[in-house]
Amino acid sequence: MEKTSKSPILYSSKEECCGCALCCAVCPSQAINMEYDTEGFLYPVIDEHKCIKCKKCLKICFFPKKTLFKAERS
Ligand code: SF4
Ligand code: SF4
Fold first, then answer.
1. Residue identifier of the C-alpha nearest atom 2 of ligand 1
2. Ligand 1: distance of its center to the CA of 74 in Å?
3. Cα dist. 55→37, 49, 61, 64, 66 in Å?
4. Between vectors from CA 53 to CA 20 and to CA 66, what angle results, nearest 5°?
5. What domains can you pick out in the chain, each with its CATH number?
6. Measuring CA to CA, how many Å separate 72 from each of 3, 4, 6, 7, 40?
7. What global pTM score does this model have?
8. Dihedral (C-alpha) 20, 73, 46, 23: value to the nearest 10 degrees?
9. Which residue intervals define the domain 4Fe-4S ferredoxin-type in the entry (predicted)?
């Protein structure tokens, strides 16, 4: 994977995230907050100002397709 200065994308659709909050738990910078969507389900949101791009959140997540970074999607 290429190095990037962008924060990871933890999921590109809600089918790729069950809201388990493991990513939030392992983040060494407390950069991930679990926030409610409009239907009342929790999803992780990364604070890019706190994120140090260590990718631990991507590695702990058991859902596939966790290699996307914002720079790669644009
Ligand atoms: S670890 Fe993966 S499935 Fe769990 S909340 Fe984070 S992104 Fe969603
Ligand atoms: S890349 Fe590292 S610092 Fe950034 S949100 Fe993921 S675990 Fe936290």
1. 61
2. 22
3. 24, 15, 10, 14, 10
4. 45
5. 14-64 (3.30.70.20)
6. 11, 9, 9, 11, 30
7. 0.83
8. 30
9. 8-37, 42-61
d(CA 61, CA 63): 6
Nearest atom in ligand 1 to 42's CA: 5
Q: What is the DSSP letter of 50?
A: T
Residue nearest to atom 7 of ligand 2 (CA): 27
Q: Minimum-distance ligand to the CA of 61?
A: 1
Round to whole Å and give the CA distance between 17 and 73: 18
Q: Which has the closest alpha carbon to 56: 42, 71, 66, 48?
A: 66
List the residue whose alpha carbon is closest to atom 3 of ligand 2.
51
